[in-house]
Amino acid sequence: MIQRSPRLSTCRIASRISVSRMQVWRTLHEEDLHPYHDHRVQHLEPGDPARHTDFCHWITAHPQLLSIIFFTDEASFTWDGINNSRNLHTWSHDNPHETSVSKFQRRFSVNVWCGLLGNKFVFDSNLTGNTYEVFLRNELPGLLEDIPLMTRSHMYFQHDGAPPHYTRHVREYLCEFFPNRWLGRGGPVAWPPRSPDLTPLDYYLWGHMKTLVYETKVDSQAALCHRIFAEAGHIRNHPDNVASACQSLLLCAENWRRAL
Fold this sequence. Notes:
By secondary structure, this protein is of the alpha/beta class. The protein has two domains: 1-36; 48-82 and 106-259, Ribonuclease H-like superfamily/Ribonuclease H (Nucleotidyltransferase, domain 5). It contains nine helices and six strands. The protein has helices at 10-17, 21-30, 48-61, 132-143, 149-154, 168-177, 200-213, 221-236, 239-259; strands at 69-78, 109-117, 120-125, 156-158, 182-184, 189-190. α6 links the parallel β4 and β5 (182-184). The longest helix is centred in the last third of the chain and has 21 residues, at 239-259.
């Protein structure tokens, strides 16, 4: 049955052949079979692999640029975090009818922006699409004050293809302040769409940060902001981890090239 349908559940097998589920597990184990979870991957549209390949060739051909690429991204943090209700249970002889309180009528979230440059971590909050250009012109220079001037004069600016990033005013600003040195949709270096495996903010920073933030439940937007800034400070105090995550991009790019 497993050979015909590898995804068949042990409960269904036990029911069909009238044996215990434990017997099914024992038999599968004796046959040296193991349950493996699916590995979630990003869906790609036709034409995406070629764009990914072009970028991977570019970055592996210029590995020295990795230390001066300023990776940026935005993310939303919600009040309820990430919950897996399948792991929430109560052991009892009788059903205790426990309840889990939800607050769907009282939802709030915080949008935050982050940038990674080598081992530097730059962070800000309350960024919206409508204010992206204003943020780049008025807020970003202040956030980069700790970056050496020589590095700022040579660094590449990266962002993805989100609609606010593709407006004419934003592209004009980037062409003015990062001439031929920005990565994005319509930029001198094209950023491949649907590529979370190629930016350390997606494959490292956001997951790690949300794990830290959501360890403790919060009851207000102010408390959520406090948690976010506190954990941002924690990550900033571990620059070696940030640098290692950025360097991992070269390995990701090389693996992508070999896969094709």
